[in-house]
Amino acid sequence: RECLLLRAWEAVSSERHLQGVLEAVTNVVGAVVQYNSIGIIAPFRGDPHGLFACHVVGNPLREGETLADFLQRLRPAQIDVAKRPLRPYPHEAREPVGEWTVHNCPDVLAEPEWYEHEYYLASGGVRAYCSLPLSARRSLTGWATFCRAEPAPFTEDELSILRDICRPLGV
């Protein structure tokens, strides 16, 4: 496990752009924790959060392609899903660093209410996901969201590994 974390730090420090960081981290941790995509989103600040970077396993960003171009290229793969009533986001950006929580959703389609972003995840084919806080200098810098196309929750062991991986990602 320590070797895995060291390799994750090396992967993060060897890349210049966040998109490359996500691909490099996936190359390190993907054999241990299975997921189909990872995204980095902005911390909650009362406004809708934004996607900073995204990596889809087996569908990397092409040279010169922007994140918007990448997402547009993947758009045809979207599926129709019925919307659910929305639930409000927690106000975790104002909480002390030790109180930020991990959100582990075993099957987004089984949820009676959704956070706003869950509609977009479901329409993109995501069934299960977890969001982990990213921090640097005791400040929330964003969220790492690991997604699966199957309704399979992330285990406690997998979440523990992803928490460790989120340390270098936060920086």
Structural key phrases:
5 strands, alpha+beta, globular, 5 helices, single chain, 171 residues
Derived structural class: alpha+beta
- Major sheet: 5 strands, antiparallel
| Ends apart, CA distance between termini | 20 Å
User: What is the average of the pLDDT values?
Assistant: 83
Number of helices: 5
Order of helices and strands: HHEEHEHEEH
Note the overall shape.
Answer: globular
Uncertain stretches: none
Describe it.
The protein is α+β, with helices and mostly antiparallel strands. It has helices spanning 2-14, 18-29, 67-74, 116-123, 156-170, and strands at 37-41, 51-56, 103-105, 128-136, 139-148. Helix 1 (2-14) runs antiparallel to helix 2 and helix 1 (2-14) runs parallel beside helix 5. The mean pLDDT is 83.
List the helices and strands and how they pair.
Layout: H1 2-14, H2 18-29, E1 37-41, E2 51-56, H3 67-74, E3 103-105, H4 116-123, E4 128-136, E5 139-148, H5 156-170
Helix pairs in contact: 1-2, 1-5
Offer a concise description of the structure.
The protein has helices spanning about 1-15, 20-30, 65-75, 115-125, 155-170, and strands at about 35-40, 50-55, 105, 130-135, 140-150.
